Amino acid sequence: MCHQSASSIILAFVAFLLFTGAAAGQRPGGPGPGNIELRVNDVDINPFCDELHRLIVTVMGEDNTHLDRQAIVKLHDKKRDITTWESTSNEAKVTFCNIDFGDYDLEASAVGYLTAKKDWHLAGTVQERQFKMVLSRDPMSVDLETNGDDTPPRARKEK
User: Fold this and answer.
1) What is the pTM of this model?
2) Which residue of 62, 76, 79, 127 pairs with 105 in a disulfide if CB–CB is 3.0 to 4.6 A?
3) Please, is 94 exposed, middle or buried when counting C-beta atoms within 10 Å of its C-beta (0-12, 13-18, 19+)?
4) Mind listing the pLDDT tens digit for each residue in 37-61?
């Protein structure tokens, strides 16, 4: 009798483990406490992105003006080991939300420009949370602003 009740208890325990494991696999993925969303390009979309948890990156050219093209900004949170990318808005800005204390790597790049990198350590809530990243023209890149006169006569389509 004792052997039969012990085996039924073990069987019930194994069934419990199987069902709880299957149920845990059914929960939806996505952002959770250990995997939070770091990006939002328009603060108006996310009104909960308050100033104390926001990082704004502005990407500029060498002449300290906005780029004439979109740039990509990469943010890597070293503490959580989370990396996210976001493209700049029309104002050459990117807004990242849910920024906590810790160390971050920032990279900005655009076609025809050299990538700019910056290490950032956030130690307090009053610390500056707006950066300008200046991109330099890549001397090895193709000039995207050519005019038709540069095309050899044989390559032009004559009408």
Assistant:
1) 0.61
2) 76
3) buried
4) 554 444 445 556 777 778 889 999 9
